[in-house]
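Quick start: load a record and inspect it. Here is Large ribosomal subunit protein bL12:
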Amino acid sequence: MAITKEDILEAVGAMTVMELNTLVKAFEEKFGVSAASMAVAAPGAAAAVVEEQTEFTVLLAGIGEKKVEVIKVVRAATGLGLKEAKDLVDSAPKAVKESISKADAEALKKLLEDAGAKVEIK
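Running the structure step on this input writes:
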């Protein structure tokens, strides 16, 4: 008689946290693996799913001494007119761009910092 996945899941579901800890250690020793990144939840407990952030917001935290340069970068990055870009820079701390990729956020942050601004990515 073969043991099914359901049999194994039932047996694991009936174990205490201490028994699960012992089982994980036995797997690590037997197969030479590490369960460091594996989260074990107690039976009946809801496991929180951690999602990697994919959308970022570039926040202009401070203008610095080169206000005109910062306005130029904001205009180029956002497509705003001169007055709108100036108003955005004057109202810092303020989001410059929202819901952009990490690479785009890092590139914009570098441009703004090169212009003398203080920038945060959230």
